[in-house]
Amino acid sequence: MTQRSRAARNAFTLIELILVMTILTIAVSVTAPALANFFRGRALDSEARRLLALTHQGQSRAVSEGLPIELWVDASQGRFGLEAEPSYEPKDPKALDFTLDSSIRIETIEDNATGAVRGMAPGSLASTTASSTITVHSLHPSLPRIRFLPDGTIGEASPQKLCLTDRDGKSLWLSQSRNRLSYEIRNRNN
After folding, report:
1. Residue 189, by phi and psi: left (phi above 0), alpha (psi -120 to 50) or beta?
2. Range in 34-38, 45-49, 67-71, 109-113 with the lowest mean pLDDT
3. Domains detected in the chain
4. How many degrees, rounded to 5, is the angle at CA 162 between CA 52 and CA 78?
5. Which of 71, 82, 84, 146 could in theory staple to 158 by disulfide, Cβ–Cβ 3.0 to 4.6 A?
6. Are strands 124-128 and 96-99 parallel, antiparallel or unpaired?
7. Residue 105, phi-psi category: left (phi > 0), alpha (psi -120 to 50), beta (remainder)
8. How many CA atoms within 13 Å lie on the side-chain side of 122?
9. β-bridge mates for residue 125, sequence order
């Protein structure tokens, strides 16, 4: 038996290669929609976790630096960020700015029972206590913002919930915890 005839028996024919390519094409076309849904769901979960991590970072930074820190949300532009309230420095050198995934929408939901103050002068946020009124200036006056105070608490006028929704209508909520000391991720069922 010659070397050439042995090689011819071990090789694939053109028909066999076309058949394998057809089977692979069918397999990919069947699994592609499921993979697309998987990755879309991952984008929603990823954005919710990134926003939750930013709340933890803001709260930790407020305590460690002894300054109020704001997590602002610009729903119309699909952006959010974290920065210290203006004090002796006009611009925060540690400020963070993020853009949401293009398939995700964000919405802030304020609970009227918390005493959220509306109709204040642009650039100020009023926090009232029994003995005094404090006016706070912000770099994002017209945007909703979560305010982390130096003692680790969340400001009274902060939104109760942030709702993240993807193209398919699935949503995750970043809600204040029951003790109102932090935020947590929730879905519609809990």
Report:
1. alpha
2. 109-113
3. 3-186 (3.55.40.10)
4. 90
5. 146
6. unpaired
7. beta
8. 4
9. 136
Alpha carbons within 13 angstroms on the beta-carbon side of residue 26 total: 6
Quickly list H helices, 11-97. Answer: 14-65
Q: 50 near 164, Cβ under 8 Å?
A: no
pLDDT tens digits for 79-97?
999 999 887 777 888 999 9
Q: Report DSSP state, residue 153.
A: P
Of all residues in the chain, what percent carry a pLDDT higher than 90? 41
Largest Cα separation within the chain, whole Å, is: 104
List the structure tokens of 56.
């933890």
Tokens representing 154 are 């969340």
Tokens of 121: 């002068």
Tokens of 94: 């540690």
The pair of three-digit structure tokens given for residue 27, joined into one six-digit string: 């397999």
Q: Which two tokens stand for residue 190?
A: 């809990």
State the amino acid at position 60 in one-letter form.
Answer: S
Residue type, 78: G
